[in-house]
Design brief:
It is a single chain. By secondary structure, the chain is mainly alpha-helical. It has a domain of 117 residues: Up-down Bundle (Four Helix Bundle (Hemerythrin (Met), subunit A)), CATH 1.20.120. Helices cover 65% and strands 0% of the residues. α5 runs antiparallel to α6. It is elongated and about 75 Å long.
């Protein structure tokens, strides 16, 4: 009979030790650390929106593919940060911009107008912007962005927030 030997690793020894912090405390501390970076994140979101606006407004009627890819990169950055800090409407608008620019690139189209409309929506939903007075206003804007995707027959690549459960971030 062959004997199997499992070497002891430092990680296995540390995991076997008593002590440490309970899960709830670790999650709470992690969320506090994330929250501490909100101002920095908001500044990055603001600069990404400004970059998207600068590219889109300077393009004229046609938006060349390299600039479209830059917009896609900035919009993706907004999606990441907006999702992390639960800016749901901004996240949805930025996802729509990603879907739009990806669709335009894949279709070989270069129309800047729908990109500009998306940039304006991002500006309205940015952290620190004047709050929309009712959730229905934000929903109306997001519905308009969906109509733009429908016009071009682009299918959203994401399922909005359906794949993300807020409960996963709750402590307790």
């Amino acid at each position: 009979m062959k004997k199997i030997h499992f070497p002891k690793t430092r990680f296995a020894e540390l995991a076997a030790r008593a002590g440490g912090v309970v899960r709830e405390t670790a999650v709470e501390e992690a969320l506090n650390n994330i929250e501490a970076s909100r101002d920095e994140s908001d500044a990055v979101i603001e600069s990404s929106i400004a970059a998207i606006e600068a590219i889109a407004y300077s393009a004229g009627a046609e938006l060349p593919a390299p600039q479209m890819r830059e917009i896609l990169r900035f919009a993706d950055q907004i999606v990441t940060l907006a999702g992390l800090f639960r800016y749901h409407d901004l996240d949805a608008a930025a996802r729509s911009l990603c879907d739009l620019t990806d669709g335009l690139l894949n279709a070989g189209l270069s129309d800047s107008a729908p990109v500009i409309v998306h940039a304006q929506a991002l500006r309205l939903m940015a952290p620190g912007a004047a709050m929309l007075t009712a959730p229905e206003e934000a929903q109306r804007i997001l519905d308009g962005l969906r109509r733009i995707l429908d016009y071009f027959h682009f299918t959203p690549l994401s399922n909005d927030d359906a794949e993300i459960e807020d409960a996963a971030f709750e402590v307790g």
